[in-house]
Amino acid sequence: MQYELATRHGNISSAKVGLFSTRLKCARCGVWYGRKTWASNTKYKYTVWQCNHKYTDEHPCSSATVKDEQIKDSFVQALNQLIARRPQQSQLPQVLGDMFGTSRLEEQAAACQTKIVELTEQIEALIAENQRCALNQDAYQARYTELDTIYRKTLARKTSLEADIAANTAKHAAITTALGDLTGEPVSEFRPSQWSALIDHAIVDGDGIRFVFRTGEQVRIALKG
Question: Residue limits of the Recombinase zinc beta ribbon domain (predicted)?
Fold first, then answer.
């Protein structure tokens, strides 16, 4: 009898409320920023980003409340500083390769696959033996359950590793492409693709934003108006 498990997985998506969701962090308390709507019942309605715990303590959090345009303008300034800071990027491919390399993950996934094959053979042999002769059914069921549990855990681990490999590969490609667009010429406008690819997170304090890039570099920009 062929032992087979169904492994259908739906697409996992993360819906974000806005481009800056889970990217802005409060310098004072470390809590993520959230989108807030001000003057919602008037014609002057507009949205801002502020610390989600800004008013939970006795004293309001001192980190700035920022608008989309302030974030975008500051990010463009940060990119231009990044371009000016390192005119030569000879070591960047190696840095990115180290950050998003998949060799170790691929080795672990291959080891999982080997174990899955071994477990499948053991389970099929156990089933065949139980068909040939009358085994103690309690012992048979216990052994079957043990092997099946290990199989499922190993399969889940392999699936997780493959997802990590795909994610790292995609991030590496996106960052390489985004950095390739920074050819030394000043950046003049905000591009969502560059934000998504290059920014790990940004830390907002009382009068500025510190951008933490996926390359490990950081740039702080003072907020304007």
Answer: 19-80
The C-alpha atoms of residue 86 and residue 94 are separated, in whole angstroms, by 15
Q: Is the pTM of this model over 0.85?
A: no
- Following CA atoms 153, 158, 162, 163 in sequence, which dihedral angle do they give, to the nearest 10 degrees? 0
pLDDT digits (tens, 9 = 90+) for 172-190: 888 887 777 776 678 889 9
> Parallel, antiparallel, or unpaired for β 46-51 and 33-38?
antiparallel
First-to-last C-alpha distance (Å) of the chain = 72
Quote the domain boundaries for residue 125: 99-176
CA separation for the pair 160, 166 (Å, rounded): 10
Cα 214 to its chain centre, rounded Å, is 11
Q: Residue 119: how many CA atoms within 13 Å on its side-chain side? A: 21
